[in-house]
Design brief:
Elements: E1 12-14, E2 18-25, E3 42-50, E4 64-72, E5 74-79, E6 82-87, E7 91-94, E8 100-104, E9 110-118
Antiparallel strand pairs: 1-2, 2-3, 3-9, 4-7, 4-9, 5-6, 5-8
Amino acid sequence: MVKVNWRSVRPSIVHGAGIDWRLLSGQSLRNSDDPSACMEAMMYVSLASLQPSLSYHPHSHDDHEEVYYIISGKGEICINDEIQPIRDGDIIYIGVNQIHEIRNTGDEMLDFLAFAAQTK
């Protein structure tokens, strides 16, 4: 059984701005220190928090696609120069090699889950 609580995971800083709790890892990222590795195509599931006025720098991934589920807060998502407002309850698909940036435009933390799946 694989069961993880975000409170027991050590966070890290990602993309120079966000706080990330890696909740699950896929088989491709499995190592002896990570008992949470599970699904074959999945790379990770992370809980992310982004402070007001901060953003992830624009970037892309050539080996995986992502889905963001917005838990709380509001902001903007920019994917390949298309900008859309985001808020709690939104789910966003980000394809392979799509340049993307998430921005917190609100006054509170922007919290979201990031799911990534391998494509290669």
